[in-house]
Design brief:
6-stranded parallel β-sheet; 12 helices; Rossmann fold; about 350 residues; alpha/beta; about 30% helix; Quinone Oxidoreductase, Chain A, domain 1; 2 domains
């Protein structure tokens, strides 16, 4: 099969002929019909997260945002059959570890690698991770939700507990940020978007942001405080660099809630200075948010089917697999605007 292969950290990925995956007894092979391109793969390509002990085995096929059709199922699988349309969960929990058994499969330590930058990918522990896809949602839209959209959903609803009429500020208007803006707006929140790129701020407006702030042109913290008469109820750092994390926390009112979704780069290596005294005196809550559990997918897909959420509006381009690496390269300079989806293999 054709696949985009990462052979070395920081070196160009290559389109190669790769062996088709063999179906595990408890898994399934998925014919990939669409695959989103996520900044998390840029992090992996850069060799980030080694400081927390994460190092991919090479060579490997990245890609963790894909949807398609079940091609083959393992002998032990009961809930799936060939021909079913599915979206593959970002984290494929094992279903039996302590995290999975207590409803936190997004922290499963046995979650395997993916492989969406190829014609065929694997769905592991298929009975636990099965997410059927309605005919009313096409593969491109489903794949665009694969990581950033479902991650934003978990961060906004499950971790941030955003309520209608709250003020929410989102720092970083990439895929996760735009998703968070659309989701928070759908809940009835007033959203303020912050970025350094006017193109991305225009996309933020289209996603539902009530106000946008260009951090190059004005002090974003003061601007947020002015717009909200004292600070936001909830802040989201959707990027993960030191300045966005600190500014997001500083943008909060007393007893505000900060949700950290963005992960750091080699510049920070996982360490960001924070205004600890302000966090204490103002009783700021600092909340981490990682991926999403499989059981939450039906809620998201239901909202998409009813068009309460429209992730398709965030898609900026559909491209062949051969162009995917150039999209990942552009992430080094934050050149990308919107969400890119591979739909030709």
């Amino acid at each position: 099969m054709k696949a985009m292969v990462m052979e070395e950290i920081g070196k160009p990925m290559q389109i190669k002929d790769w062996p088709e995956p063999k179906v595990p007894a408890d898994g399934a092979v998925v014919r990939v019909e669409a695959s989103g391109i996520c900044r998390s793969d840029w992090h992996l390509w850069q060799g980030d997260w080694a400081w927390i002990g994460f190092k991919p085995r090479l060579p490997t096929i990245l890609g963790h945002e894909f949807a398609g059709v079940i091609e083959e199922v393992g002998k032990d699988v009961k809930s799936l059959k060939s021909g079913m349309r599915v979206v593959v969960p970002l984290v494929q929990g094992c279903g039996v570890c302590d995290d999975c058994r207590t409803g936190h499969s997004n922290h499963c330590s046995r979650s395997p690698g993916m492989g969406g930058y190829a014609r065929y990918g694997l769905l592991r522990f298929a009975d636990f991770n099965c997410v059927p896809l309605s005919d009313n949602i096409d593969f491109v839209e489903a794949s665009s939700m694969g990581c950033r959209y479902v991650t934003a959903f978990h961060g906004i609803l499950d971790q941030g507990h955003v309520q209608a009429d709250e003020n929410v500020v989102v720092y970083g208007c990439g895929g996760v940020g735009l998703s968070a803006i659309q989701i928070a707006t759908a809940l009835g929140a007033r959203v303020i978007a912050v970025d350094l790129d006017d193109r991305k701020l225009e996309l933020a407006k289209n996603a539902g942001a009530a106000d946008v702030i260009n951090g190059k042109k004005t002090d974003p913290v003061q601007a947020v405080r002015d717009l909200t008469h004292g600070g936001a109820d909830v802040s989201i750092d959707a990027l993960g660099i030191a300045v966005t994390c600190r500014n997001a926390v500083a943008s909060l009112r007393r007893r505000g809630r900060h949700v950290q979704i963005g992960l750091t780069t080699h510049d920070e290596k996982g360490e960001v200075p924070l205004p600890i005294d302000q966090i204490v005196f103002r009783e700021i809550q600092f909340i981490g948010s990682l991926a999403i559990q499989t059981f939450r997918y039906p809620a998201i897909l239901s909202m998409v089917e009813r068009r309460r959420l429209e992730p398709k509006k965030l898609i900026s381009e559909m491209i062949p697999l051969e162009r995917a690496f150039s999209v990942i390269e552009q992430m080094s300079n934050y050149e990308n605007a919107g969400i890119s989806v591979i739909n030709q293999f």
